[in-house]
Amino acid sequence: MKSKSNTKITDCLVVNTLSILESNMKNQKEWIKVHAAEFMLWSGYPDGVKELFIREEQLYGDISPYRIGIWRVLMQTETELQQKEVWIDKLRQAYFDKNSTDRLHAIETLAKLEVPVFGDETKLSDIFTGGIPDSFSIYKLWNFAYTSDENFEIVQELLLRFSVSEQYDFSTRSISLYALRKLGILKDSSWKILSDSTLSESNKNPIKVNLLTTAIITANNNAIQTDSYKEIWDNLLSLSRNEEKNNVCMNVLEAFAEKGGRDELEIISALIDKKKGLDDPQSVDVLSYCAFAILRIKHIESF
Predict the structure, then answer these.
(1) CB-based contact 33:296 (threshold 8 Å)
(2) Closest Cα partner for 193 from 163, 217, 170?
(3) Which of 4, 194, 224, 295 could bond 43 through an S-S bridge, CB–CB 3.0 to 4.6 Å?
């Protein structure tokens, strides 16, 4: 889906996107600050992130659940394993403390960092006994995926089932789709199940954008060549031009950051213009997602 358009990312545009991230990291609060910091790290601009979050840890290291985000960022700023373990240990302690108020955030973060908390003796049945999973169970399953290659495949298939089945509610499906795309590329047969469900889902169902985003991100090279992928991409582009809800924008931008190209820059730039000046937290957060998508496209396209 990469375009041969003459669209250029100018040095000015890169500076502007970095200024968005730097401003949100320095001036916003809690999770907006965390997201901006992570986008800085992932884009290769770590300067100042560690120092700022060391101060945050000193000020708010005992505040739940924000402390989880602080430790998440600090773990990613470290280059030595021994130092990473300092923050990982704090996250593990938060998860294993049955009285902790942020166990859910801790297990989600450990899954995001691909740090399993379960030992070799843990079985799938210890984590999920059937029925309709809650968010805590889904995050535990996501974390459990990193215990072995076999468990990784088992969890992928379970999350796929939760994602495409109409017997589950929006919350279960959306969290499952989020975890599924974080686990990465799907095999051909699994991706076809996901793509068929995505294309058959009504555009009026709010789960649609989650399906579209996950189908785009989990598509392997074979899938990208299919008519289904092209139709899914066209659906996503249509949503990106006609829907301004913040949660929809974040999903779209996540897909753009993974599989977008030069053609999507115009859409992202237009979205920045719409969200600039708005002071509600989600709109401010969307600006960080826009900035990250632009920097990722710049990196992927290398121009």
Answers:
(1) no
(2) 163
(3) 295
Angle, alpha carbons 94-99-101 (nearest 5°): 65
| Single-letter amino acid code for the residue at 54 | I
Residue given tokens 């399953």 in the structure block = 141
- The predicted-structure confidence for 165-184, as pLDDT tens digits, reads as follows 999 999 999 999 999 999 99
Q: What is the pLDDT of residues 4-32, one digit of tens each?
A: 443 455 566 777 899 999 999 999 999 99
Contact in structure between 241 and 280 (CB atoms under 8 Å): no
pTM as predicted? 0.93
CA distances from 88 to 34, 84, 94, 169 (A): 16, 6, 10, 32
**Residue-level length of the chain:** 303
Rounded to whole angstroms, the Cα distance separating 108 from 70 reads 14
Under 8 Å between Cβ of 41 and 49: yes
pLDDT tens figures, 45-76 = 999 999 999 999 999 999 999 999 999 999 99
> How far is Cα 249 from Cα 243, in angstroms, rounded to an integer?
8
